[in-house]
TrEMBL record:
Gene Ontology MF, one: zinc ion binding
Top-level division of the source organism's lineage: Eukaryota
Source species: Bactrocera dorsalis
Secretion signal span: none
Domain PHD-type: from-to ranges: 10-71
Protein name, entry field: PHD-type domain-containing protein
Pfam families: C1_1 (PF00130)
Residues in Phorbol-ester/DAG-type domain copies: 1-49
PROSITE patterns for the chain: ZF_DAG_PE_2, ZF_PHD_1, ZF_PHD_2
Annotated coiled-coil segments of the chain: 120-147
Amino acid sequence: MPPKKINTTSQFCGYCSELIRDGVQSSIQCVACQLWFHSRCTGLSSVEFKATAISIKKKESVWNCSSCSNDISVRTCDSHLSDDEVLTHISPQANEMESLFQKYFDRFTSDYDRKFEDLKKSLVSSVNNLKDEVSNLSKQYTTLTNKCTALNDRL
């Protein structure tokens, strides 16, 4: 259903929220959300606005505000294509995206594996150093215990 041509009731602009003065300010209604917009708030030049208004009056087209246009553009851009045709158009892009994802995922996992291995080597080295230190301390303890026993025996 095409939008009304003339704003005959008090309406507020869907963009700036100011009152649209009936008969004084040019305005247009979005066919999707049914909100009215000042001509200056449509994003159209004055020439584009007049051409759009004429086209609507002739019932050749309808107008959607930028918000509604963004919402419906995905649904309407390929509406003339069958599902198989859409898949045919999308498949190469999906394959390219999958390939890029796999490339970056492989790089990430490779970096992660390398860092994990480096961390593992560092931890193993630290544990081995601690074992050596405990072994040395144990030997020193045994030596000191033997010396203390020898000193006690002499007394």
